[in-house]
Amino acid sequence: MSSNGTDLTTGFIASIVAIVLFGSNFVPLKKYETGDGMFLQWVLCAAIWLVALVVNLILHCPKFWPFAMVGGCIWATGNIAVVPIIKTIGLGLGILIWGSLNALTGWASSRFGWFGMDAEEVAKPLLNYIGAGLSVVRGCSLAVISGILYGSTFVPIIYIKDHSKRNDSIYAGASQNDLDYVFAHFSGIFLTSTVYFLAYCVAMKNNPKLHPEAVLPGFLSGVLWAIATCCWFVANHSLSAVVSFPIITAGPGFIAAMWGVFMFKEIQGRKNYLLMMLAFCIILTGALCTAFSKI
């Protein structure tokens, strides 16, 4: 198999793993009382950082670029709203909505070169546009904000990679391997979540709402998310963000909806089942169009 074919296979496999884990990572938390979610998000982010530490050691501690932490800071800011979203509009709908905005922001910033990044070209632009559009046709204010923030999380890393090719840039010579930025990215997540949690403790006059029974489920959720994101980094490297974003951000909504149907009974009735299947067909079509635009 050619190197390009190997990259495509690796990228699509990584995308599938990421989709399944992203669609399932909040499942361990669904049946536990999590209160306002501030303590829980700190536990989740601590688990994320520990996974990043392991990955960093496996990669023999590549150079740490502080700017890559900014993406983690953005993600942690969007993540604060996740627990209220799940509790108010449900796991499936929440992920569908913020996933749509995530897909749109991440895809557009890579495709058109926003925020100082290089615009990415694909072999079949029309298919890429159709795929991205179909992935976003699902569109609740917190979920929208979270989606936009999530969609911006990889911008600093892509910016560093793009400018590493320019001799006059401070990022000249930076690694093109997305996994080399995992530790910095996840460190930004943990640092920001810690700052938010400490601010929350101050606001609560040192009486935060803690739910010990949610600690282990929250830790497991963080580990699943971290592994999924590492797979996303691999997919970004193998496929490019303009292809991986619409695929990976659209798919978890369907996985979460399946959990909502079969485990949590969030979706009931023949009409809702038919609507869900229609949504799945649209998502699948969008993912396939995006995938074929690379070939």
Write a brief caption for the model.
The chain has helices spanning 3-24, 38-58, 69-79, 82-89, 91-111, 125-135, 141-151, 155-163, 182-203, 215-239, 241-262, 270-292. It is mainly alpha-helical.
How many β-strand runs? Answer: 0
- Give me the secondary-structure category: mainly alpha
Strand fraction band? under 5%
Spans of at least 5 consecutive residues with low confidence = none
Main pleated sheet: none
Report how far the terminal alpha carbons are from each other. 15 Å
What's the alpha carbon Rg, rounded to whole Å?
Answer: 19 Å
SSE string, helices as H and strands as E: HHHHHHHHHHHH
The total of helices stands at 12
| Helix percentage | 55-70%
Q: Tell me, what's the shape?
A: globular
Summed over residues and divided by their number, the pLDDT gives a mean of 76
The overall number of domains is: 1
Q: If you had to describe this structure to a student in words, what would you say it looks like?
A:
This protein is mainly alpha-helical. The protein has one domain. Helices cover 70% and strands 0% of the residues. It has helices spanning 3-24, 38-58, 69-79, 82-89, 91-111, 125-135, 141-151, 155-163, 182-203, 215-239, 241-262, 270-292. The radius of gyration is 19 Å and the shape is globular. The model has no long low-confidence stretch (mean pLDDT 76).
